[in-house]
Amino acid sequence: VQHTRGYGGEDISGCLRDAGAEVVAKSQGSLMKTDLSRPMAMAGGETSELLALRAELEDRNRAFKALQRNYDSVSSVGAADREELQMLRKRYTDFDKEALDLQKDNDRLNKQLRDQSQQQSAASGDRQQLEQRASQAERKVKDLQEAATDAKKQLKDLQEMLKSERDKAQAIAKQLTLSQRAAESRGQELEELKAVTRAQSQGAAAAEAQLQELRVQLANAHSRAEQQLKEAEAHCGRLNEDRQRQVDTLREALERERSLVEAVRQELGHGQQSLAAAAAERAEAQRRIAEADERLRQGLEAAEAERLAEQERLATRLAAAEAAASAAEATAGWELEEERAKVARALEEQRCALREQEGQRLALEEQQRRRDTEEAQRAQEELASQVGGLSDERRRLAEENQRLARREEDLQAALLAAQRDGSAVQLEADARLLQLQQESESRIAELKEEVLAADQRLQELQAASAREAERSAAADAELRAAKHALDASWDEHSSLQAERSAAADAELRAAKHALDESRDEHSSLQAERSAAADAELRAAKHALDASRDEHSSLQAAQSAAEAQRCE
Question: What is the Cα–Cα distance from 458 to 391, expressed in whole angstroms?
Fold first, then answer.
């Protein structure tokens, strides 16, 4: 033992001589004093005490070497445990990164839900505008119907006036014929009087004076009759011209009314078509609202299922980490207790160092366990807060739907009150239609950008999964190399290392299985998102086509209304 500690051979010989002298002195003459340094005294062979001491020295050397080997093995086991702990911490950070990615995906889903709610509000605004246009078309139809009834009444009044004027003309013609007959009768009477005067020319002067007076009266009456006849003829001509002009104006008014009635009929047909289109658009908007509600419900269900799956994964990870920590703690404690029992009697300093290492390891494991527990609780709290946020979002969407319904009722009441503002509302509708078209185009561009971003994110996730697979393969290779080196360096703990490697393989398979599940879940979620984005893009295109058709129909109706207004 002294030789192993660095003492020389002379010191050992001196110690042995001193020990021999003490033994000889205590033997009280039963033993002889010999000098081991002299070779002549060694000729007879070694004594049994020296052999026993050498055997004890060799046993102690072997025990010390065995203790040193055990200490080296314990140190290698501690290093392997530390490496395994670092690997577990690295996996835990990877899992945290994956949870952060899932959180980002959840935030993006929430943003999509908010966008869908905004689209729903825009669809409700479009529906209100369509209803407003339908009410305007109905109002125009009513106005045209009222104008048609007024035109019919005016036409009927004009026909009655024409009939009365015709009756008056017939009465004047009758008066003219009667005056002509009276003039003819008077002429006949004049001829008779001329005959009487010629027959009685030879009468008295009084008769001739009477005849002269009668001639003067007859001339005056004839002139008055001719003047009355001329005046009656001029009056009849003027009346006929007035009646002809009135008839022409009535004919023109009748033609205009007929064209107006035809335009009204065409406007009515366009109005009915626009009403049918508005009803179809309203049904389409309601269908889109129902689809948006269904997508919202499916998104909430998917988020709830994702939250439950995340809780289950966190619980399994926490249980696996606790089980691994407890197993490592139990195995390390058992090994350290066993080694401590072997080394305690010979190496007090090594036992203190092992105690310090054990305390540090326990403190680190306790700190890691507390950190894992706190992070798991924090993740559960975050998931609970996310679920609460989703429920709040659902309540907010319900309140938003109710508020939109109330606003729709208010707008309908306001539309009933503002039926007179046709032209301004039409201009506003055209401006709103143009704005909706621009918003639809911008929304389509945004959806395309989101699809490109989703594809880029999918590629990044695929690259990350490939890197994760490479890291898993490297970890497997490192684990196999460490296992082979540990089996080659330490045959005494082969069974324990086999159990540890089996546990590590099981944990690695569990981690791989969890990673595969997360990848499958992420791929399914990515597929659903891409499908939803495609559906939303198709719906936006359909809405844009419908808005363009509506804009063209409204422009045609506006041109027809302007033409009618000009007429």
Answer: 28
Give, rounded to a whole angstrom, the gap between the first and last alpha carbons of the chain.
Answer: 130
What is the rounded CA–CA span in Å between residue 128 and residue 410? Answer: 11
Burial of 2-29, coded b for 16+ CB within 10 Å and e otherwise, reads eeeeeeeeeeeeeeeeeebeeeeeeeee
Rounded (5°) CA angle 374-379-383: 145
pLDDT digits (tens, 9 = 90+) for 322-361: 666 566 556 655 665 665 566 556 556 655 666 676 677 6
Q: Is 422 buried (19+), middle (13-18) or exposed (0-12) by CB count in 10 A?
A: middle
Enclosing H/E stretch for 137 = helix 48-199
User: 420 is written with which tokens?
Assistant: 């007179």
Whether 390 contacts 303, CB under 8 Å = yes
Residues 508 and 479 sit within 8 Å (Cβ to Cβ):
yes
Q: Considering only CA atoms, which of 299, 310, 378 is closest in space to residue 517? A: 310
Distance, in Å, from the CA atom of 214 to the CA atom of 223, rounded to the nearest integer, reads 14
pLDDT tens digits, 204-262: 566 566 656 766 766 676 667 667 666 766 766 676 677 667 667 766 766 776 676 66
Could you tell me if 332 and 81 are in contact, meaning their C-beta atoms sit under 8 angstroms apart? yes
Under a CB-based contact definition with an 8 Å cutoff, are residues 408 and 128 in contact? yes
Question: How far is residue 212's CA from residue 297's CA, in Å, rounded to a whole number?
Answer: 121
Fill in the amino acid letter for 182: A
pLDDT of residue 566: 72
pTM exceeding the 0.70 threshold for the entire prediction: no
Residues 522 and 465 sit within 8 Å (Cβ to Cβ) = no
Residues in Cβ contact with 32 at an 8 Å cutoff, skipping those fewer than 6 apart: 24
Strand, coil or helix: 27: coil
Rg (CA), the chain: 60
CA 2/CA 57 separation, integer angstroms = 10
Q: Are residues 536 and 447 in contact, defined by beta-carbon separation less than 8 angstroms? A: yes
Distance CA 134, CA 153 (A): 28
Q: Which of 306, 237, 326 is nearest to 524 (CA)?
A: 306
Place of tokens 């709290």: 381
